[in-house]
Amino acid sequence: MSMALQLDDVRFRWHRRAPCVIDVQHFAVAEGEQLFLAGPSGSGKSTLLALIAGIATPEQGQVRVLGESFAQLRGARRDRFRAEHLGIIFQQFNLLPYLSVLDNVLLPCRFSERRRAEACARDGSPEAQARRLLERLGLAADDVLRRPVTALSVGQQQRVAAARALMGAPGLVIADEPTSALDTDRRSEFVALLIQECTAAGAALLFVSHDLSLAPRFHRSLSLRDINGGAS
Ligand SMILES: Nc1ncnc2c1ncn2[C@@H]1O[C@H](COP(=O)(O)OP(=O)(O)OP(=O)(O)O)[C@@H](O)[C@H]1O
């Protein structure tokens, strides 16, 4: 079976004298698999995602994304690989404040020809795909799409970040507590959409949250404790 994500013997600490936060012997997500990963606050969920996104580098071990030893790529090659193959929904969204909602969502297609081509193949153009995803997420009105993202509520920003991550069918989508700012109905809709779009794109999904009520919607659920011998 091909793996969207594979970690082997990965250890990480934030500083030389800090405790080991991540100590994972083996963890894998298959291509197209949708996995829920739970863990209490401070257990290292965001750190694990930073390692997977190539934002942090393990002191030991291998992180492979779609078969590529991503963590070992340098600088621009690492950034390029991330842009081509990963959809990321961070807790702090990382939207660009000087761009409109629409332009934020279109960003992956500016940085990756592959994702641009995927968006065109599926919806005719990147803009059509962006509008479709935003509409599904309840952000369709033209005045909203043209607003700077700073003029949106936190829940709306969270949905913009999700639409951006899904653009152009990345092979792996990682989501860090993406529903924390949504009310119960919106949360349920949001997760349903994320799962549906990942299924349609054949993207694997790693969804990290402490909200266990969402776990049954995924193919598989795990606790970070099950895989991490580190500080958790
Ligand atoms: N940038 C950083 N520098 C130093 N230590 C950090 C940094 N980020 C996280 N840590 C530490 O690593 C440990 C794990 O934190 P992490 O944010 O990964 O947990 P989490 O499970 O995502 O928590 P939460 O659910 O509250 O977001 C904590 O002890 C935290 O203080």
From TrEMBL:
ABC transporter domain location: 5-231
Gene Ontology MF terms in the entry: ATP binding; ATP hydrolysis activity; transmembrane transporter activity
Annotated CDD domains: ABC_MJ0796_LolCDE_FtsE (cd03255)
InterPro entries: AAA+_ATPase, ABC_transporter-like_ATP-bd, ABC_transpr_LolD-like, MacB-like_ATP-bd, P-loop_NTPase
Family annotation (PROSITE patterns): ABC_TRANSPORTER_2 (PS50893)
One family name in Pfam for this protein: ABC_tran
GO cellular component, one term: plasma membrane
Keywords: ATP-binding, Nucleotide-binding, Transport
Protein name per the record: ABC transporter
Species the sequence originates in: Isoalcanivorax pacificus W11-5
